[in-house]
Amino acid sequence: MRVIGITGGVGAGKSEVLTFLAAHYNCRVIMADQAAHRLEEPGERCFEPLKALLGVDVLTPAGKIDRQKMAARIFSDAAILEQVNGIVHPAVKQYLLEQIAQERAAGKVDYLFIEAALLIEEGYTEIVDEMWYIHADVSVRRQRLQQTRGYSDEKIDSILARQLPEEAFYKHCEVVIENSGTLHSVYQQIEKELGEYQCQKQ
After folding, report:
1. Burial code of 14-45, b = ≥16 C-beta within 10 A, e = fewer?
2. pTM
3. Fewer Cβ within 10 Å of end Cβ, the chain: N or C?
4. Mind listing the pLDDT tens digit for each residue in 164-173?
């Protein structure tokens, strides 16, 4: 089983790549954000530490973490954001390590794809076999974010300013999937990369 990290800037088209992979390959896809949400549920490993840090004010009437309230707290206080990340990010990485071990032991899938915007920043290069950078020109990403999410130029500028420069992605990723053009081109690139791996296995 090969473990591949999928990363790239907002609007690069990671979701389309993952949808294609899930539909055409014997694989499992794990989204780090979804894993984090799961670990923040009552009874999971992040819930009690987050409740102790943020207080019961961030809970819903049903006793779950209210994501909007938590977001309001952490993005208005850099110190709180750092503490929340210190709880969630290590827990997600540990969860992913456990899932990798389980899938290797089961031996049922050829690939495990892990998607996260912060794969490089959080040191995920240490736990994957290979990193893929889904690249799209900034102008293309802007257009996508405006059309699909309704983002303003100001919001896009703010998001882009917080993301790694392209040079960092190129430095840490072994494979670059160019997604500024057609999806057909993207699919061809994926098939080429994974076809080479299949040949190596035989």
Report:
1. beebbeebeeebebbbbbbeebbbebbeeeeb
2. 0.88
3. C
4. 889 999 999 9
